[in-house]
Design a protein that fits this description.
The protein is of the alpha+beta class. Helix 1 packs across helix 2, helix 5 runs antiparallel to helix 6 and helix 7 packs antiparallel against helix 8.
Length: about 300
């Protein structure tokens, strides 16, 4: 049994239907035990004296059509240790149910609102979860960044009385299918770090950069270069230090007959890391770049 004394948030984006859970704890690898999610079904956080089975069993009940509260009540009725548990469930309709057992270490409590709930135990003070709730409701942007805002507010209010160690963030889309693994949008974990929330935020930005790059590639294939350039630029803003993003941008341009636009980009990434020169020569054999000797010669000349 793990002592996951921690703070977390479950939320649903009312516009997209995406659902997510974010958590921070002074416990190693909180992401392996606390957060659970399934696209189109719901999200769960199980913490305090954690009973991991609340995660998969709770999702199974939600998938059968039970509400968050009904699922939580059923799970609690089978648990002799419920007084030590803190469990939160949010279903696909945005209905929240939270249990904070009377033996959870203080400060402990929770707060629910439309499409979200926050919960915490073993906190430095009892302002942690109200501040998380306020920050989430006031935050702008994607669901992931609103979840991060809640975590940052919880830590700023005092956080875990023991300090920080690990964090995790999990977001799924709204599509309920028999292949839920295809609908996980973000699954990030920081298992051990001096400032896990800051590291988690860095990873979320990096994830955003790669998502934008992939979207740009698709737009290039649709010959919508203007929209693609906008996506590539946004990706670079999120991760200006990652030379892989412009490399694949250049590859996509070259492969779509826009070599002159690609050449200065190739030159920059080749200067950043000469191994990209080797890699680009291996792409035609894998079908990832047109097998065009003249084009390849021009690419290699810019190094």
């Amino acid at each position: 049994m793990a002592f996951l004394n921690t703070f977390s948030i479950l939320a649903r984006d009312e516009h997209t239907g995406h659902m997510g859970v974010a958590v921070q704890s002074h416990w190693f690898a909180v992401g392996a035990l606390c957060p659970w999610a399934q696209a189109g079904v719901g999200v769960i956080a199980t913490q305090s004296m954690v009973e991991v089975s609340y995660g998969p069993q709770g999702l199974a009940l939600l998938k059968k059509g039970k509400s968050a509260q009904t699922a939580l009540d059923e799970l609690l009725s089978q648990d002799a240790g419920q007084a030590l548990r803190q469990v939160a469930i949010l279903d696909a309709r945005g209905r929240a149910a939270v249990h904070t057992g009377e033996r959870c270490i203080q400060a402990a409590g929770h707060q629910s609102g439309s499409n979200f709930c926050v919960q915490a135990n073993m906190m430095l003070n009892d302002s942690v979860w109200p501040n998380m709730a306020a920050a989430f409701q006031e935050a702008q942007g994607s669901l992931a960044f609103r979840l991060l805002a809640a975590l940052k507010a919880g830590q700023a209010a005092g956080g875990d009385i023991r300090g920080m160690q690990s964090a995790a963030l999990l977001v799924v889309d709204a599509q309920k299918t028999e292949q839920p693994w295809k609908h996980v949008l973000i699954d990030l974990r920081v298992d051990d770090a001096p400032d896990p929330i800051a590291e988690l935020e860095r990873l979320v930005k990096l994830q955003s950069a790669y998502d934008l790059m992939n979207a740009a590639d698709e737009l290039m294939l649709q010959d919508d270069s203007a929209a693609a350039y906008e996506k590539y630029s946004q990706a670079a803003e999120f991760a200006p230090h990652v030379d892989e993003i412009p490399f694949w941008q250049a590859v996509t341009l070259a492969d779509n007959g826009r070599l002159e636009e690609a050449l200065p980009i190739f030159q920059r990434v080749f200067q950043a890391n000469p191994n990209w020169v080797l890699l680009v020569q291996r792409l035609p054999a894998s079908g990832l770049l047109r097998d065009d000797a003249q084009m390849m010669q021009k690419i290699l000349q810019v190094q």
